[in-house]
Every structure is written in structure tokens, then in C-alpha cells.
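Protein modeling request. Please complete all fields; requests missing the sequence field cannot be processed.
Requester role: graduate student
Desired output: 3D structure, C-alpha cell encoding
Chains: 1
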Amino acid sequence: MRMRLRICLVLLLTAPFLSRAQSILGVGVRAGYTFSGSFTGMSGNSGSLQGPEVGLDVPIGLPLPISGLGGLQFNFSPSLFAATGGWSGTDFQGNVYRLLASARLSIPGSPLYVRLGAGYAYASASHGDFTSQSAYETQLGLGVGILNNLPAVKVSADLTYHQSSLVQVRGWTIGLSAKF
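Delivered output (180 residues):
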């Protein structure tokens, strides 16, 4: 009983500091629309993966100030790209799961930033349209802050290129991100 009371007391005393630390660290949420490269499926049809992608940017440590360049933030950046068949209806369906380490470099005096990432991606076919497989992926993104004057959130517009040897993973994402 005393141990439970001590644990509750420690949690109550540290909760305000933990909640404040979260707002300082800046967890980010990303949402966008992704287009993969075009490929030939198992049935001989040509198409691509298209659909929404959602992801997180979970900070790893505090931002590093870099003289003359601004702040550099390292993140763990998982995401899910759910290819729903695209606008034409003839494209393939499947999911792409990404587990990346990324870095975001803010350009001082500007709302622009550059995003670099590297890691692992797995493309999974929903209806056997293509062979499910994994590959290494790198990312290069450019973003611009569009709502930076809000007290609890900063909203940016992003354009990201995904490079991989696997065509289902390779492509473009256009979207929005919010940093809390």
C-alpha cells in the first residue's frame, strides 16, 4: 500500500514537468497524399500506388543550434501510406510502412526547412497485385511554415521525395505537418 502511495505521489509531482517537456520537444504529425512510381503488376497491368499517408515525428533529444544555419532536430519518423487505388481507379492497392530516422534543419530568419530521412520501408499488396517486399529508403523534403503564430501548434506545408530501389516505395508526398 505504501509503495502505491509513493508511486502516485511521484507521478503527481512529475506530471507538470513531463507535460511541459512534451510541448518543448515538439512532437509532429504529418498527413498528405502520396504517389509512387509506375510499375507493372503481377497480372501485367501498369499502375502506381496512390493514397493518403500519415506519420509522426517523435523528437530524439533537444534541437541542436548550428551556427549560421538554425536548429537541427533529429526524429524517429514512422508512417503509413495506404494506397487506395488512386483517382483513376485502375491503380494498385496496398500499404507502405516506413520506419525512418530523420533530421529537420530550420533555416534562420525564414519559414523554410529541409528534411532528410533514411530507414526501412515495407510495401504490402492488398489483393496480390504485386509482390510484397521491403527496401531501404531515403527521403528529401522541403517545407514552409504557413501558420507559425499560433501558441500551441506550428503548421507547415511539405513536399517530400522518397528514393528507393523498390518502385512501390519511391515517389512523392505533398502534405501538411503540425508540430506541437
